[in-house]
Amino acid sequence: MTIEPRVQLHRSCSGIRIYQLPVETFPQHINNVYLILDGDRSTLFDVGSGTPQSVEDLRRGFAEVRARFGEAVDLSSIQHVVISHSHIDHFGFVAYFTRESDAEVLIHELDARVLNNFEERIVLASKDLRVFMERSGMKPGARQELEEMYRFSKHFFKSVELDRILSDGDRIINGYTVHHVPGHCPGQICLQVEDVLFTADHVLSRITPHQSPASITPFCGLEHYLQSLDKIRRVEGVALALPGHEEAISDLPARIDAIVTHHMRRLNQVLEICREPASLVHVSKQLFGAKSGYTRILALEEAGAHVEYLFQRGELRIANLEEVSRESNPVIYYETRRGADAPLPIPPPWGCAGEAGARDAERPLREEAP
After folding, report:
1. CB 271, CB 336: distance < 8 Å
2. What is the pLDDT of residue 105?
3. May I ask the CATH architecture of the domain 8-116+160-261?
4. How far apart are CA 29 and CA 33, in angstroms?
5. What is the DSSP secondary-structure string of 80-93?
6. Nearest to residue 231, comparing CAs of 256, 200, 196, 268?
7. What is the DSSP string of 96-136?
8. Which segments of the chain belong to CATH 1.10.10?
9. Which of 151, 212, 234, 273 is the most exposed place for a label (fewest CB within 10 A)?
10. Is residue 356 over pLDDT 70?
11. CB atoms within 10 A of CB 351
């Protein structure tokens, strides 16, 4: 059988073989699933969404690894499965490994509850999202439509029982190091295998990972994300970073600097927008323009994460405080704390290198996030 080459082979400094398998987890949304072959140990880092196309692409990737590279491996022979974080495009196929194979499945402790009690998580997250949308100024019809859209894509996954819970600094499998990096997701991890760092959705090569407020999900939010970027920037010995989407990253510190610079620029945009009282819906439209479908939620959450960061630091204040104190859940309007003529600089941390490499696009990443 002839297979069109799609799989990429990477190697660690000692020769550990790492196969990058492209998987279409949702229409036009590609994830990287990584097969790590280390002596007689076989590990999958993420598993795709579990949709028919995602599963077909994953099996096709394994077939290519066997045909092109001569590796005697298939899904049933995988010994360890590491889930980077609890967004469904990364974990949706995990039930195969928990129910139909002998693989050990590992995930960070802050995300384990999502997979163990998925139905509970969707109910609670939907309610938190509803409150967020109400306070943002979104109209009732749009709120209902987006809430239904949020729940619909989650119906095909059912809770699973996991084998092992991870914590920051754990050494797993053959000494691989777990780095907990909350922000994009509460239990987001990067996994270090010798001089290779699997960054999942913490650092991507072209697009800045989606941010949502901590007010919706604890351990998310821009504050956690920026701290986690700084943490990974300080990790020594990384020669290659392999992300959950897009291309490999050869200069991880430079890419992190570009992402931080992007967020600093966006924070200043928000301050400028809020020189006059503005709802989150208004801020979102000013930042991203009019959006449709699921991207409306992503854009609103992204705006909310930046507003929350500035509000926590006293750079923004509530403009309609009397109404907020009087009503049960009114639309909140934010305004810049400084005078209308004052400069509004938010400086980047740790001396970032400016705009070079900031190819992140002014749009949030398309991603399903429970």
Report:
1. yes
2. 96
3. 4-Layer Sandwich (3.60)
4. 13
5. EEE---S-HHHHTT
6. 256
7. HHHHSS--EEEEEHHHHHHHHTHHHHHHHHHHHHHHHHHHH
8. 267-347
9. 234
10. no
11. 8
State the Cα–Cα distance between residues 142 and 5, nearest whole angstrom. Answer: 43
> How distant is the alpha carbon of residue 186 from its chain centre?
9
Rounded distance between C-alpha atoms, residue 92 and residue 95, angstroms: 7
What one-letter code names the amino acid at 112? A
Tell me, what's the pLDDT at 147? 77
Report the C-alpha gap between 1 and 208 in whole angstroms. 39
Q: Would you tell me which CATH number, out of the four given (1.10.10, 1.10.260, 1.10.3470, 1.20.140), belongs to the domain 267-347?
A: 1.10.10
Q: What is the DSSP string of 287-310?
A: HH----TTHHHHHHHHHHHHHHHH
Q: How confident is the model at residue 144 (pLDDT cuts 50, 70, 90)?
A: confident
Half-sphere exposure of 98 (CA within 13 A, CB side): 20
Rounded Cα–Cα distance for residues 294 and 221 (Å): 19
What is the per-residue pLDDT across 281-331, written as a single tens digit (0 to 9) for each?
999 999 999 988 888 889 999 999 999 999 999 999 999 999 999 998 899
Check whether 204 has a pLDDT greater than 60: yes
**Ranges in the chain annotated CATH 3.60.15.10:** 8-116+160-261
User: Which tokens sit at 227?
Assistant: 């701290």
With 80 as the cut, is the pLDDT of residue 341 above it? no
Q: Is the pLDDT of residue 22 over 80?
A: yes
CB 81 within 8 A of CB 115: no
Q: Is the Cβ–Cβ distance between 180 and 108 less than 8 Å?
A: yes
